[in-house]
Amino acid sequence: MKLLRTTVAALLLATLSGCSLFGEKVEVPPAYVGKILTKNGYKPETVTPSKFRLDSCFAYCDRLVLLEASDSGKTEKFALFMPKDQLNMSFDVRMTISVDDSKIDNVFDRIPPQKGVIASNMIYITYAQPVIRDVVRQVMAKYTINEVASSRERISQELFDSVTQALRGTPMNVKRFGLADVQFPAVITKAKEAAAKRREQIAREQAQFEIQKIQLERELEQAKMMRAIDREKAEATKEVNAILAKSVTDKYLAYRSLEVLDKMADSENKVFVPVEALGTVGLQQAVFADQVSKTANSK
């Protein structure tokens, strides 16, 4: 009897070891979706973030497979030969990319999970990376290096449009795409630095010219003011002379002559000569004879 009970217990344990009476506890975390994988394939419904228990099972148990559905940032590095310049240029493209919700079933069917998870990077490498690398090279090869330097925003928009079109029909959606960390050839960089120095020098010379221009304009204004002052002085002198010319008459001159004679009369060293006789020949001869006589007596 004891042997029988032991045998039955062993058989029951062996039976129960291949089954789960209550089902496994599982979870679909945020930014993921899941599907239940049965022995006949995936169940049709997609499981959104939640916690639940799998169905009880016997011999074969269902499994939860997760798919990473979050937005993912990616960077692709390029070292590209630019045909129009015959030079090499390196740059990055940075993007935000995610799985298209309408294509989730296709992803589950076509990409095998690793440890129960289909990572977004696996989807990116499978569907997006080869397309993006090819499209970026095609677009960038159309431009010169100078065009890339001056039109990065426009080229980034063209890259976004071209990549979005190329990925249409795949499980990937592009939400943002653009150029970044552009490394120009050394010869281009040196040329740009030299051009920047020339622009800076021109700006300094222009500023100096403006300063000199202001100084010259100020000096010109000062010269105009001085000329205006000189003109006013000349006009004033002219007006005074005009007034004097009108005021000095013959009667005024005769009066002034009498004043002079009056002052001379007070002096002891004098010879009185009528004013009217100053210009006559006889007076001049008399003065000459008197001077000769004074000279002879002094000898």
From TrEMBL:
<feature type="domain" description="Band 7">
    <location>
        <begin position="81"/>
        <end position="210"/>
    </location>
</feature>
<keyword id="KW-0732">Signal</keyword>
<feature type="coiled-coil region">
    <location>
        <begin position="188"/>
        <end position="246"/>
    </location>
</feature>
<dbReference type="GO" id="GO:0016020">
    <property type="term" value="C:membrane"/>
</dbReference>
<feature type="signal peptide">
    <location>
        <begin position="1"/>
        <end position="22"/>
    </location>
</feature>
<protein>
    <recommendedName>
        <fullName>Band 7 domain-containing protein</fullName>
    </recommendedName>
</protein>
<dbReference type="InterPro" id="IPR001107">
    <property type="entry name" value="Band_7"/>
</dbReference>
<dbReference type="Pfam" id="PF01145">
    <property type="entry name" value="Band_7"/>
</dbReference>
<keyword id="KW-0175">Coiled coil</keyword>
<dbReference type="InterPro" id="IPR036013">
    <property type="entry name" value="Band_7/SPFH_dom_sf"/>
</dbReference>
